[in-house]
Amino acid sequence: MNISIVSVGKLKEKYLKQGIQEYLKRLSAYAKVEIKEVADEKAPENMSEAEMQEVKRKEGVRILSHISQDTYVITLEINGKMLSSEQLAAKLDELATYGKSKIAFVIGGSLGISDEVQKRSDMAISFSKMTFPHQLMRLILLEQVYRGFKINRGEPYHK
Question: What are the binding positions for S-adenosyl-L-methionine in this chain (predicted)?
Answer without folding.
Answer: 76, 108, 127-132
